[in-house]
């Protein structure tokens, strides 16, 4: 009876070791490039799914390209893609050369009252040290949405940086 438990235990440990090895081996493997894998993708949903796969593989440039392509198809509707793109640039890539402000501005041209896009743009400017445009966008949010206490606090905090 004890031998069966020991054998079962050894098999279980071996299975776990193999699973961990396979997960480690596949972690960060190159999926291919955005240019290769996006061929034939016609919907923002397909491109966002591809971007998530690129993020899992730690291919952040390709993930950003995929999110931008999704945004290009529906600039005013892909709020999750804007958020993900902002996160990638703030956490993984150099933000100053990203063109992220341009992406947000294009989205705002489509959805000029989008608080999500205005806030993303203001936070982007603040992160890269451009406090005047950040202040202006926070102020615009408060003008359009006076009940937004968080943005009022952000304005007060930002004024201290001038």
Please, could you describe this protein's structure?
- This protein starts with a helix and ends with a helix.
- It is about 75% helix and about 0% strand.
- It has helices at about 1-25, 35, 45-55, 60-75, 80-90, 100-110, 115-125, 130-145, 150-160.
- It is built from nine helices and no strands.
- The model has no long low-confidence stretch (mean pLDDT about 85).
- The protein has about 160 residues and is mostly helical.
- Helix 3 packs antiparallel against helix 4 (about 60-75) and helix 6 runs antiparallel to helix 7 (about 115-125).
Amino-to-carboxy terminus distance: 76 Å
The coarse overall form would be elongated
Helix content: over 70%
Largest sheet: none
Number of strands: 0
Number of helices: 9
Show unreliable segments.
none
Give the SSE string. Answer: HHHHHHHHH
Structural class: mainly alpha
Measured by DSSP, the beta-strand proportion falls in under 5%
Mean pLDDT: 85
Roughly how many Å is the radius of gyration?
22 Å
SSE layout:
Blueprint: H1 2-26, H2 34-37, H3 44-56, H4 60-73, H5 79-91, H6 100-110, H7 115-127, H8 131-144, H9 149-159
Helix pairs in contact: 3-4, 4-5, 5-7, 6-7, 7-8, 8-9
Primary descriptors:
162 residues
Give a short overview.
By secondary structure, the protein is mostly helical.
